[in-house]
Amino acid sequence: MSMERELKDLLKTLGAPVVWGAFDRDVGFPRITLQRISTVTRYSLKGRGDLETARVQVNVAAKTYGALLSLGREISTTLTDYRGGSVIRIKELSRRDSTQETGGDVIRLQMLDVQVRYRA
């Protein structure tokens, strides 16, 4: 199983809709989107290694700040405690809060950057 699928399936256990990239339709709030920011591949004298380190951004959107904080903490704990499949380790690098106004509504956002070390 790919690292992307593992993380997506892991976060689905929290009860919010999860997708890599963007949702194709409205799924309500709270919701989680994932995107890869960068990947570093290890190499040896024999060629490409089987370990990679990716920086993944986890975007959380919610209607209330309380829901945002609660889900953000759950995501952080779930990811950083996880070891299994192809994932060796996940470390939280940073967390940022923001808002987005759409059609008179204010959506609260939190972006978590995590470093994922995994077997490719």
Automatic annotation (TrEMBL):
One Pfam match: Tail_completion_gp17
InterPro entries linked: Gp17-like (IPR021508)
Top-rank taxon, per record: Bacteria
Protein name from the UniProt record: DUF3168 domain-containing protein
